[in-house]
Amino acid sequence: MSVIYALPVGGGILALAPLPGSEDGYAKDFEHILNWTPALVVSVATDEELASTGAKGIGARLQERATRWAHMPVAEGEVPHGVAAQAWPDISTCARRALWGGGRVLMHGRVGIGRPGMVALRLMIEAGEAPDEAQDRLRALRPAALADAAQMRWALSAEREAAVFKSRRDRGRPMAPRQVRGWKTTQAGLVTAASFRT
Q: How far apart are CA 133 and CA 124, in angstroms?
């Protein structure tokens, strides 16, 4: 079964993984993805790569199971152009909405490193993360994810979403305390979901 490498982004979880069937049997890998319950799966692979791993019909199969799917046909060692470049703004918008809503987004390619790492970094920046911090976090998760210079340039060309600051006062009156879900780091360095009051 393939490993899904995940990190918190924008209130949700962003993950990288190899295509189902790349490392193990397609059926087992596909079920592993479904059990992870992503809101959106982005296949950053060519049609030929999808067919070679047995994942040619993955989009329809995911959608049958109520998971959104997007296809960015990008060849190994390349950056998005043509159809993939045109599709990116809509894919990014959908992914950011899923993350901001607390959902899970999975990026996968043949090996789950180069192209998925490229689009994950760009998405992290577009979601408001500082480019250097996003790079550090992604490299800590998957050290080989950002190895190609052209892919790095494409990812870093992202426009960063403006930060949103919330006031503690609403029209001159203090806001009532409310329950918030967020992330905290444990003493062991693990990031976990946490509830706390503001």
A: 10
In this predicted structure, the answer to whether residue 124 has a pLDDT above a threshold of 90 is: yes
Which residues lie closer than 8 Å to 59 by C-beta, 6 or more apart?
43, 69, 71
Task: Let me know: does 140 contact 72? Beta carbons within 8 Å.
Answer: no
The one-letter code for the residue type at 81 is: H
pTM of the predicted structure, to 2 decimals: 0.80
Residue 117 CA to residue 140 CA, distance in Å, equals: 12
Distance separating alpha carbons of residues 139 and 20, to the nearest angstrom? 23
Which domains does the chain possess? Answer: 5-167 (3.90.190.10)
- Measured distance CA(158)–CA(80) in Å, rounded: 13
3-state secondary structure the chain: CCCCEEEEECCEEEEEEECCCCCCCHHHHHHHHHHHCCCEEEECCCHHHHHHCCCCCHHHHHHHCCCEEEECCCCCCCCCCCHHHHHHHHHHHHHHHHHHCCCEEEEEECCCCHHHHHHHHHHHHHCCCCHHHHHHHHHHHCHHHHCCHHHHHHHHCCCCCCCCCCCCEECCEECCCCEEEEEEECCCCCEEEEEEEC
Which region among 34-38, 39-43, 80-84, 161-165 has the lowest average model confidence (pLDDT)? Answer: 161-165
